[in-house]
Amino acid sequence: MTFSAQKCGVCFQPPSIILIYRDNVQEKTRQRIMPIRNFTRFSDCSKAAEQMKNNPRHKPYLEGVSLHQLEKLHRLLRDHLEGESLSDSLGRYHHEHTIDPEEDMNKLDDKELAKRKRIMDELFEKNRKRRDDPDFVYNVEVDFPQDEHLESCAWDTESDEEM
C-alpha cells in the first residue's frame, strides 16, 4: 500500500470529503479533496459511502479508511443539508451508536437488535487484546475482595443429590 490515511473529515461548502494521507513512496504528507456530487438530504448515506470507497479514482487512497467512518461523514453532511448544527448531529450520532446498559433488548425488533449487536461487536474488537499488542499479558490473575458480604442464591446451596 503506497498511501496510508491519517485523518479524514468533511467539508460542507462545497460538499466534499477531505483526506490527509501519507505518500509512502515520496515520504510526504498530502491532502486529497474528494467532492461529493449529486448528494441531497434524501440520499442514502451507506450507499453513498460505499460508492465513494469503491470509486476507482479514490479507492487507493481510501483503503485505510473504514466504511463506517465514511458513512458517518456522509451522515454529518446530510444532517447539515437538513439544517442541523454540527454539535446536534454529532450528539445524535453518538447517542445512536452507544449501548445503554439499562435498555431491555428483548423488546427491540430484529433490525434494531442487529444494530445493537453490530455496535457491541465493534466495541469488542476495539478493546480486544491480541498476542502482538505491547500490553498483552497471557495469564491475568485478579484477587477480588473477600470482606464484602456475598449474596447467595437458592441454586448455589442445592446439592447434586437434591436435583
From TrEMBL:
GO cellular component, one term: spindle pole
Keywords linked to the UniProt accession: Cell projection, Cilium, Cilium biogenesis/degradation, Cytoplasm, Cytoskeleton
Location in the cell: Cytoplasm, Cytoskeleton, Cilium basal body; Cytoplasm, Cytoskeleton, Microtubule organizing center, Centrosome, Centriole; Cytoplasm, Cytoskeleton, Spindle pole
Annotated TM spans: none
Stretches of the chain forming a coiled coil according to its record: none
InterPro entries (alphabetical): CEP19
Pfam family, one: CEP19
Main location: cytoplasm
PANTHER family per the UniProt record, alphabetical: CENTROSOMAL PROTEIN OF 19 KDA, CENTROSOMAL PROTEIN OF 19K CEP19
Membership in a protein family: Belongs to the CEP19 family.
Protein name: Centrosomal protein of 19 kDa
Organism: Setophaga kirtlandii (Kirtland's warbler)
Source lineage: Eukaryota, Metazoa, Chordata, Craniata, Vertebrata
